């Protein structure tokens, strides 16, 4: 074979990586470091020159005498003793002129029956900064949505109350046009209040959702069918359901998910009697649950749009609604680690499907 053997090229290749990398023996003695290791040591305030080869990494780490160093040393000790195979730890590593964050990853491996430990430190400053900014932005957005929704509800209730009071007390003095105008105003205020309430619920999915527990989806569906009992009787709807699984999740939010999907199926049934079927299928490590109807359907070009906040495909005169229900469904499903989508064609009905992680058995 021409040139150097692949094994001989490995140290040279590792030396060019912008990752601080070292190999230790099973006692923690440093056997190899790459070029980036020294730069990492300088940023961390520790002397990690090439001549540290032959010294013990735990001893060097503990020299820092910080909580971060002690955590790293404890994790590495567990790798060395065989208590764990992989250790990961994110930590700050700030110099006087720059704030930086690193991810330490240590893992054991064997070569010719000899056990070694690879230690790498990745600079995750850009990712960490972006993630924190995104979290702060989301938190501000959620706070704004909550405050705006909460503060707008009372004025809207006042507008509605006074309009209704005006209609009651001066009904004899109002002509038909005036009564119609008041009716339009009340309807608009009530729809706005419903939209604000939906937005408030939407903003709370992440911040005020309860912790996950074991949830029997059959019990959830039973509760939803009870709540929708009057609507089901009025429409003469036929709803059938296969056996549903038990999953890990938030019972209240999963109940809202099923209720929104069933209300959607009942509302968009068209002129015919609603027929809705619910199915569940295990697919490796997740459950696929589908809610199918025989209603008016939607164009596939709008399949993504229906899950956006306030995106409606029909006017209020055609169908009532706030434009938040399906957006709320998607946020609930995503919080539970799944995905949701719709398969549909106009006048051919719709199938809303979503996945939920299957508990380990």
Summed up:
This protein is an alpha+beta fold.
Question: Overview of this structure, please?
Answer:
There is one protein chain. Helices cover 43% and strands 22% of the residues. It is α+β, with helices and mostly antiparallel strands. The protein folds into 3 domains: 6-123, 2-Layer Sandwich (Beta-Lactamase), CATH 3.30.450; 135-208; 210-361, 2-Layer Sandwich (Heat Shock Protein 90), CATH 3.30.565. The strands form 3 sheets. It has a 5-stranded antiparallel sheet, with helices on both faces. Strands 7-9-10-12-11 form a 5-stranded mixed sheet. It has a two-stranded antiparallel sheet with strand order 6-8. Helix 7 (217-227) packs across helix 9.
Q: Which short descriptors sum up this protein?
A:
43% helix; Beta-Lactamase; 22% strand; disordered N terminus; five-stranded mixed sheet; 361 residues; 3 domains; Heat Shock Protein 90; alpha+beta
């Amino acid at each position: 074979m021409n040139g150097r053997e692949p094994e001989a090229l490995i140290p040279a290749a590792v030396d060019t990586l912008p990752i601080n990398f070292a190999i230790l023996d099973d006692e923690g003695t440093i056997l190899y470091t790459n070029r980036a290791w020294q730069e990492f040591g300088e940023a961390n305030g520790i002397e990690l020159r090439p001549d540290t080869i032959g010294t013990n990494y735990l001893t060097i780490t503990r020299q820092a005498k910080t909580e971060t160093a002690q955590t790293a040393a404890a994790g590495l000790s567990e790798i060395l003793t065989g208590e764990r195979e992989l250790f990961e730890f994110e930590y700050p590593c700030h110099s006087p002129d720059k704030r930086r964050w690193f991810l330490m990853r240590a893992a054991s491996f064997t070569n010719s029956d000899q056990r070694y430990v690879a230690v790498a430190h990745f600079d995750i400053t850009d990712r960490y900064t972006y993630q924190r900014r995104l979290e702060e932005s989301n938190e501000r957005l959620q706070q704004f949505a909550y405050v705006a929704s909460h503060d707008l509800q009372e004025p809207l209730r006042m507008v509605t109350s006074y309009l209704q009071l005006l209609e009651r007390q001066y009904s004899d003095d109002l002509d038909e046009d005036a009564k119609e105008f008041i009716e339009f105003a009340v309807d608009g205020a009530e729809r706005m209040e419903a939209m604000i309430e939906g937005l408030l619920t939407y903003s709370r999915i992440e911040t005020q959702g309860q912790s996950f527990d074991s949830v029997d989806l059959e019990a959830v569906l039973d509760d939803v069918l009870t709540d929708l009992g009057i609507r089901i009787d009025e429409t003469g709807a036929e709803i059938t359901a296969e056996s549903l699984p038990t999953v890990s999740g938030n019972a209240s939010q999963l109940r809202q998910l099923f209720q929104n999907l069933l209300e959607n199926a009942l509302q968009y049934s068209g002129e015919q009697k609603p027929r809705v079927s619910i199915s569940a299928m295990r697919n490796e490590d997740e459950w696929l649950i589908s809610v199918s109807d025989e209603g008016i359907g939607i164009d596939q070009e709008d399949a993504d749009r229906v899950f956006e906040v306030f995106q409606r495909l029909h006017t209020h005169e055609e169908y009532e609604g706030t434009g938040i229900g399906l957006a709320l469904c998607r946020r609930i499903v995503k919080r539970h680690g799944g995905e949701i989508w719709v398969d549909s064609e106009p006048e051919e009905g719709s199938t809303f499907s979503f996945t939920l992680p299957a508990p380990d058995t």
